[in-house]
Predict the 3D structure of the following.
Amino acid sequence: MANSQMHESWSKYSHYRVLVPFVAVALATPFIPLQRMITLGRFQHYAIALGILSFGYFVHCGYTWTRLMKWGRIATFVTGLFFASIAYIFWTNPWLDLRVAVQTDERDRFRLYLMIAYLVSATAIFLIWNCCRKEEQMRDKGGEKS
């Protein structure tokens, strides 16, 4: 019985297997001492990890495009875009690190606007994933595929 449930869960979420290696590499990236090879700020190092994670979401989106329903496609793509935008901001603005950069009022305002924008974006992405979950529940109950 338990083996059957595990097999069912494994097959239901098998399309996420393509994302797992990207998550693993993204999690390991901050621990690789890239600063010894190239000049790199701490936030730029994080940007590389987030870029890898973002790329993983785009690969996952392409790989599972035909299997995902409308909201699943949107959720996966928007999540990749979210991580890519954070990676871009971190890469192009290494002064966001409070420990190494001189802080000005302009930079403080920019940082505040970034936090607000990403909070709103993360909330929107949460709602999109919630729509995806509801769409999958309707499909599992016998609803139509969109």
Notes: Residues 8 and 14 are 10 Å apart (CA to CA).
